[in-house]
Amino acid sequence: MATPNETRGARPSATQVLARIFFIVVGLGAIGWGGFFLPIFWRQSPTHYVAVAYMQGRGFSDQVLLNQAQRVAAAVDSPFCDPTELHDAVMLRLAILNNAIAAANPTLITSGRDALNDTTRRAISCAPADAFAWLTLFWLDASRKGITPDNANYLRMSYTTGPNEAWIGLWRNRLAIASLAQLPPDLSDDAIDEFIKLVDTERAYPEMAASFAGATAVVQGRIVDHLKNASVTSRQVFARVLYDRGLDVKIPDVGVPWLRPWER
Length: 264
Known about the structure:
It is a single chain. Helix content is 74%, strand content 0%. The chain has 13 helices and no strands.
């Protein structure tokens, strides 16, 4: 028979009891978390895949895009704020509008613009730090009205909330460089600085060369002046890519000793 002291010794301490309760609660919480959120993740997974794949350059039919957009349509009107679903919804609506523009379908363009505008504004109200949503809003407004103080602020917010996101920067910089002369000085400087940063990633030479080729001589001159801030390697490779495109551009501290593809 156990003595009182032995009984007290076998009895768990208050600390042990609290520890056991803690682990039980954590375990039950994990089960509940999984039961509640896994269906949401399962529902989001195909939509997120399509949205991201489109932004990476993969094409999808209108029907596929519309099906996925309908999966997240409730997020636009829902009082529950889900930044991930709304972000995906913006990308999908942008893809649908781009397809409508490519097909030159005025009816679908109008409805696509309205749907993208509503979705983007909802995404921003849910997640004000969504740099891609701000950029989308800038593109929507500027493509209809030109550069205005209001939509310049949308672009400014995109730079503020996502200054170093290259996947956003590629589209943002293309838009900004194309309208550089109309941008306020601070945004003009941001665009030039971003161009140099993108060149310096050493992964976007073709895209940046295409953007450079489409810019005015004045803008090209500004870019060349600032390329001295890029690494030597980045300057050399970028100069080669420009040269192979037929552009005779003197990049700071880089010679042009190569033959062009058609001269070899």
